[in-house]
Design goal:
This is High-affinity branched-chain amino acid transport system permease protein LivH. It is a multi-pass membrane protein. One of its GO terms (biological process) is amino acid transport. By secondary structure, the chain is mostly helical. The chain has one domain (2-329). 68% of the residues lie in helices and 7% in strands. The protein is built from 15 helices and four strands. The protein has helices at residues 2-32, 39-57, 82-87, 89-97, 99-121, 131-153, 172-175, 187-209, 211-221, 223-228, 233-255, 265-280, 285-302, 305-310, 314-329; strands spanning 60-69, 75-81, 169-171, 184-186. The strands form two sheets. Strands 1-2 form a two-stranded antiparallel sheet. Strand 1 (60-69) and strand 2 form a beta hairpin. The two termini are 44 Å apart.
Length: 343
């Protein structure tokens, strides 16, 4: 039982990232009808927003401390972040320590702006073009963004640690009555799951309970009628593209302590996120979230040593096998609208 619970936790962790990325993809496809192969790059850009913000906080100057010497006996050169002079040493150190969660405030406007620029500058020209054209141009954009990040940040992963308060593991087993140490899980992975749940809930609440969201949902169902009512639905869809970019970016920001940011991390998640969208149902927001967590849990159980001993490598292909089975039996996906992908 403890192994099962541990794999469920692993699945929820992986599923959180899948669900957040797939949610943004589905928002774009549902509103604009665009297959956005650059969405994984938005996840990567969010991660590098956290890296950039962390580096900005640690910009420092050097001074010579005559009271201390290095191993050669020379006065010690000390690096002091400018933030220490602005906030004080203790407060400055605390802000640097919490750089990843604080960088959310930096990433939101940056990712919204990137999303709007992408939509207005490129995507809008491909609304009425075939999906193949959309895939090619957005995939090309993803490669360009990837190479830009590689040029400025290098090819190696950049460690971006979680705050000290969340380093270590939580004895989940002891809390629910199992033996101490039987189910130990990293604090930050639990934080990531909670964060994903909040973002997903906020997106659904925004679409369901705000006037803006209701108009967007109406536009997703019948764009022409909403336009005839005098509503500028194109402007609202542009904003939704920015929101989808921000969701992907925030997923990347909070994922940095789990997987050190690197220039190809967007591509690593891109294919998996599209599989999630297809399994959940093209254009179905609940389907994207459900499929994200479902496939995350399936992948976690397929990674158990007991399973790998019987079926080596099954954890690498299990998601694709599930996708094949779903598409053969239900082409529109688990929660897709009737007629979508069924022609």
């Amino acid at each position: 039982m403890d192994a099962i619970i541990l794999q469920i936790l692993n699945g929820l962790d992986k599923g959180s990232a899948y669900a957040l990325i797939a949610l943004g993809l589905t928002l774009i496809f549902g509103t604009l009808g665009v297959v956005n192969f650059a969405h994984g790059a938005l996840f990567m850009l969010g991660a590098f927003c956290a890296v950039t913000f962390s580096r900005l906080l640690q910009v420092s100057y050097t001074f010579t401390d005559a009271s201390r010497t290095d191993f050669l006996g020379n006065p010690l050169q000390v690096e002091v972040p400018y933030l220490y002079d602005i906030l004080g040493e203790s407060a400055g150190a605390a802000v640097i320590d919490w750089a990843v969660p604080i960088s959310i405030l930096f990433a939101i406007p940056v990712m919204l702006l990137i999303g709007v620029i992408m939509e207005r500058g490129l995507i809008k020209h491909f609304y009425k073009r075939p999906h193949a054209d959309q895939i090619l141009v957005t995939f090309g954009l993803a490669i360009v963004l990837q190479e830009i990040i590689k040029y400025f940040y290098g090819a190696n992963p950049i460690p971006t640690p979680a705050p000290d308060a969340f380093i270590g593991s939580f004895d989940f087993g002891a809390m629910i009555g199992f033996d101490a140490g039987s189910i130990v899980y990293p604090y930050w992975r639990m934080v990531y799951f909670g964060f994903a749940a909040i973002i997903i809930g906020a997106v659904f609440a925004f679409l369901r309970f705000t006037t803006f969201g209701m108009v967007v949902r109406a536009g997703m169902a019948d764009r022409e009628t909403v336009t005839l009512l005098g509503i500028d639905i194109d402007r609202r869809f542009t904003i939704m593209f920015g929101i989808a970019a921000a969701v992907a970016g925030l997923a990347g920001v909070m994922y940095t302590p789990i997987n050190s940011p690197n220039y190809h991390m967007g591509m690593d998640f891109l294919v998996l996120s599209f599989v999630v969208v297809v399994v959940g149902g093209m254009g179905s927001l609940p389907g994207a979230v459900l499929a994200g967590f479902l496939l995350g849990i399936i992948e976690a159980f397929a990674s158990m040593p007991e399973v790998l001993d019987v079926l080596p490598g099954i954890n690498q292909i299990i998601i694709y096998l599930v996708a094949i089975i779903v598409l053969l039996t239900r082409p529109r996906g688990l929660m897709g609208r009737k007629g979508v992908m069924e022609d």
